[in-house]
Each structure stands twice: as C-alpha cells, then as structure tokens.
Amino acid sequence: MAKIDEIKEILNTLRIGMSIIVGVIVIITGALINSEEVGKIGIYFWIGLVLDAILLITFMQIIKSIIKNTKKIKDL
C-alpha cells in the first residue's frame, strides 16, 4: 500500500471516530441538561459531566491528528 493510501485510511478512521464522539457528546450533553432542568443532580450527573469533558479533550486530539495527517498528504 502506498504511503498516501495509508494516510488516507488513517484520516478516514479518525473522521469516523470524530463523528461517533460528536454523537456521544450530543447525547450526554442533552441528558445533562435534562437532569439539570428536572433538578436531579446526582452522581450520574457528575459522571456524565466528567465523561463529557474527557470526550471533548479526545475530540480536540483527533482534530490535531487530522490536521497533522492532512499536512503529511500535502507534503507527499
């Protein structure tokens, strides 16, 4: 497999992962907002909040990796 094809596969995988993470963030954030509106702020709310923050950090790392791999393609 050529180097450019390998990088393209990595980019596709990262984009799929990014899409999944965005979906999970939307679901968790919606549940957190609903819990806050209802007034049920318990352990699950805080776990969801921490998980949401971790997913946001992971999302940013994936974006950085996509940018890095895109620059690699430009250099080839």
Structure characterization notes:
The chain is mainly alpha-helical and 76 residues long. It has two helices and no strands. Helix 1 runs antiparallel to helix 2.
User: How big a fraction of the residues is strand?
Assistant: under 5%
Nearest-integer average pLDDT: 91
Helix content: over 70%
Shape: rod-shaped
Taken in chain order, the helices and strands follow as HH
Structural class, please?
A: mainly alpha
Number of helices: 2
Low-confidence stretches: none
Terminal-residue CA separation:
14 Å
**Main sheet overview:** none
* Rg calc: 17 Å
What is the count of β-strands?
Answer: 0
Entry keywords:
0% strand; 91% helix; 2 helices; mainly alpha; 76 residues; single chain
Structure, briefly:
The protein is mainly α and 76 residues long. The protein is 91% helix and 0% strand. The model has no long low-confidence stretch (mean pLDDT 91).
